[in-house]
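Hi support team,

I've been running sequence recovery on a batch of backbones for a student project. Most finish fine, but this one hangs at about 90% for roughly twenty minutes before it completes. I'm not sure whether the input is malformed or the queue is just slow. I've pasted the structure tokens below so you can try to reproduce it. Let me know if you need the job ID as well.

Thanks,
M.K.
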């Protein structure tokens, strides 16, 4: 369950715990010196002190899908982890793992200055009451307003840039405002994690981060056990493409369904599936019309996409911008070739012609050609492409490596 922000936390008496001869926990800590090289004794001691970590996110579902293993690793250390997200059933795994949940209303897409100012005040109140040792933030609003609130209270924060988003993609006043907010928010943080090189270079070029702050990781990585290699579909079944994502213009839904409409007229046996919830009614209406016409198969939103991936021969992702597309990582981990926009955050997930095909974003013709190139392959070539994709993910996108980078940085900041 969710808890409202709480009060009454006493400051930890760290030095008393460390140096009191009567405290058995202190004795245990100090006795561990023999296991540590002399030059890192203090670091070893500090890493064993119970800590409080606060995570700020804009969606429980996404935060749980991408950060659960990291959170579990922190809890397993004996640390207290607080998770601040809007109330949702998808936060339940955090509670079950021992985290303390804080219901934090947040308008992800709204641009109202008053509501954003209110959010900063909410974050400041939460941080003041929790008094965490460190704040981890994810997505734009927590990165800006959560980091600012933490800085005002003298709490270090480590933000993660999960993508540049619409506000930065579109030129104009809003872009300049977001740049300015990021620049002032990030200047004093010890580190900023980026999920692709292009985003990192953009932030460095525009003076929003310094080179010594930037940390590059392979997106959120993939839990390779959860996202296991799936058997490739039966060659006797019709070829099925699959789109997984929010029904938004920026996710390339219109390009996908237009390419599907063209190919359906030429090869009606090829199927085009679509999974996702709607954020734009006009897009949803068009999807439903084409579904009724038999051009695409719309399945709505599901919590577990693996049964649908099992039936698909390839995943299609025509997004306009990404941090690192989790959908592509998980599909490739399942042994599915990926057909994706040739943009930062997508192109890193496949090797052209070996594990998938790229195409120009916003370009139906380019997507159409990529789909026909895939259909021109033999069944064995498609299956081999999927198997090669799994190997690439294992080597480059293992979530354990990503989480290890976060843990290393957390220990560095807290030491």
């Amino acid at each position: 369950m969710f808890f409202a922000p709480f009060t009454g936390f006493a400051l930890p008496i760290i030095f008393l715990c460390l140096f009191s001869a009567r405290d058995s926990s202190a004795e245990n800590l100090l006795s561990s010196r023999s296991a540590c090289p002399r030059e890192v004794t203090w670091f070893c001691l500090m890493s064993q002190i119970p800590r409080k970590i606060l995570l700020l996110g804009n969606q429980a579902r996404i935060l749980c899908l991408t950060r659960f293993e990291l959170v579990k690793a922190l809890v397993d250390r004996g640390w207290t982890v607080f998770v601040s997200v809007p109330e949702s059933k998808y936060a339940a795994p955090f509670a079950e793992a021992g985290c303390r949940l804080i219901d934090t209303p947040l308008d992800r897409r709204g641009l109202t200055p008053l509501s954003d100012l209110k959010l900063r005040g909410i974050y400041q109140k939460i941080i003041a009451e929790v008094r965490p040792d460190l704040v981890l933030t994810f997505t734009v609003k927590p990165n800006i307003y959560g980091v600012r609130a933490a800085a005002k209270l003298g709490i270090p924060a480590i933000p993660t840039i999960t993508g540049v988003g619409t506000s930065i993609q579109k030129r104009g006043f809003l872009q300049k405002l977001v740049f300015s907010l990021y620049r002032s928010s990030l200047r004093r943080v010890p580190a900023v994690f980026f999920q692709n090189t292009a985003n990192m270079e953009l932030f460095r070029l525009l003076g929003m981060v310094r080179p010594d702050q930037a940390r590059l990781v392979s997106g959120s990585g993939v839990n390779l056990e959860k996202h296991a290699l799936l058997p490739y579909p039966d060659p006797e079944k019709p070829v099925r493409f699959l789109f997984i994502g929010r029904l938004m213009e920026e996710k390339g839904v219109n390009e996908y369904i237009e390419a599907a409409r063209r190919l359906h007229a030429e090869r009606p046996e090829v199927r085009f599936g679509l999974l996702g919830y709607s954020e734009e009614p006009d897009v949803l209406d068009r999807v439903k019309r084409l579904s009724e016409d038999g051009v695409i198969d719309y399945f709505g939103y599901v919590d577990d996409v693996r049964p649908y991936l099992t039936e698909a021969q390839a995943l299609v992702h025509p997004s306009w911008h990404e941090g690192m597309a989790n959908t592509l990582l998980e599909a490739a981990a399942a042994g599915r070739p990926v057909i994706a926009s040739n943009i930062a955050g997508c192109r890193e997930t496949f090797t052209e012609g070996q594990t998938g095909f790229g195409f120009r974003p916003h370009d139906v013709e380019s997507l159409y050609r990529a789909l026909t190139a895939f259909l021109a392959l033999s069944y064995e070539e498609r299956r081999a492409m999927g198997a090669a994709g799994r190997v690439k993910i294992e080597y480059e996108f293992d979530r354990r490596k990503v989480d290890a980078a976060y843990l290393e940085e957390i220990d560095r900041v807290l030491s």
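--
Follow-up from support: It reproduced on our side and the slowdown came from queue contention, not your input. The chain has 17 helices and 13 strands. No action needed from you.
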